[in-house]
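Changelog entry: the Protein SDA1 record was regenerated in this release. Current contents:
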Amino acid sequence: MVDSSRQRNRLPSNLPQLQNLIKRDPIAYRDEFMQQYQHYQSLLELLIHSPAQDSPHFSEILMFIGQVMRCYPEELSSYPEQLKQLLQTHSSLLHPDVRITLCRVLILLRNKGMIEPSL
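Regenerated structure tokens:
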């Protein structure tokens, strides 16, 4: 049997597993989520300074946060606006893969009813 503390140490690097666990018990995995959210914020700052750079991990964490947003609505209240702002500000400079991921996450949030359609 795997020691639970050892399992928790591996979770931040396994986003699909963490996503599954968060959806089952958001309160128990709030600390792990906040660690990922802080990592997202750091990657966001790097991307703002170098928008043309491809970042597969940033794309992965964008989708992860989009998937679990319903579990942490207060912590992520500004998340959709951050994504919209990033697209509006850097759309022509963003790497195409990052730009498509931003659009996919916004579509996901819209389909889940987490954001309103905008004109």
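The helical segments are 4-10, 15-24, 30-49, 56-68, 79-90, 96-111.
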